[in-house]
Design a protein that fits this description.
Shape: globular
Number of helices: 11
Structural class: mainly alpha
Mean pLDDT: 82
């Protein structure tokens, strides 16, 4: 049984590639965008979470590779968050959520993602402030748990934190977020499988499409690519999806 109605499959695949392109360009895996698309195209709830994590895994890995090659990755900013987020994401992947709660929680996260895309949580780069490790450990656990529960990598939450607190520059944030998303997505999927659940085979057919968009986005994003118009369009799509989920 196809994930999306065959009448809209081509449109869905095109939009999926666009989402992967845009998210990977800023160091994200795109889970919140994939979930928004799947919500709009009425994909079953049971399919959304594992499919988003699967695509997230591939696209975030590609994004990290390109940003790492440009020497933007700072391990000392990554490890404090990852140490606590990975086990928390695994636990979150084990937690089944009621559909009503899942929709509301996901809708709120998608609003956050849309606001991030519109630039509400960005600020001009400034001299880095030394990271507060105990605070980063606590934040990492909370982000990881939520990520595993909702089927996202957590980059949409981590990125604004790094920028607002002045712990990383924009490019450093993109690099850190991409690897953070990768490890959390892997942990979330592990928790999902641990609960004796499986990913629909149709989800794997979407991987090459997301990878194609992810490679292009990461290539241009790591080289100072920016496209405000498309980001505004994507933010609008996410807001529409969040409204659909919440209301």
């Amino acid at each position: 049984m196809p994930i999306v109605n065959n009448d809209f499959l081509i449109l869905f695949c095109i939009l999926l590639a666009v989402v992967a392109f845009l998210y990977s360009s800023v160091g994200h895996g795109g889970a919140s965008g994939y979930l928004a698309l799947m919500a709009i195209f009425s994909v079953p709830m049971a399919v959304m979470k594992p499919s988003a994590l699967l695509l997230n895994l591939f696209v975030s890995g590609i994004s990290f590779f390109f940003y790492y090659k440009k020497d933007f990755f700072k391990p000392k900013l990554f490890y404090p968050f990852a140490i606590t987020s990975v086990p928390a994401a695994f636990i979150g992947g084990l937690i089944p959520l009621e559909n009503s709660f899942y929709k509301i929680a996901l809708g709120i996260v998608l609003i956050l993602a849309a606001l991030r895309m519109l630039g509400f949580f960005t600020r001009a780069e400034k001299e880095n402030i030394k990271i507060n490790i105990p605070l980063a450990l606590v934040m990492g656990f909370g982000i990881g748990l939520l990520s595993g529960m909702l089927g996202i990598g957590g980059g949409v939450i981590l990125s604004p934190i790094l920028l607002i607190l002045g712990w990383a520059t924009l490019k450093e944030t993109a690099s850190i977020s991409s690897l953070f998303i990768f490890v959390n997505s892997l942990a979330g999927l592990s928790g999902f499988f641990w609960g004796n659940k499986t990913i629909p085979m149709e989800s794997f057919y979407l991987v090459p499409i997301a990878v194609f968009g992810g490679i292009l986005g990461a290539y241009y994003g790591s080289g100072y690519f920016s496209n405000k118009v498309l980001k505004y369009v994507l933010a609008t799509v996410i807001l529409l999806a969040s409204a659909k989920l919440i209301f």
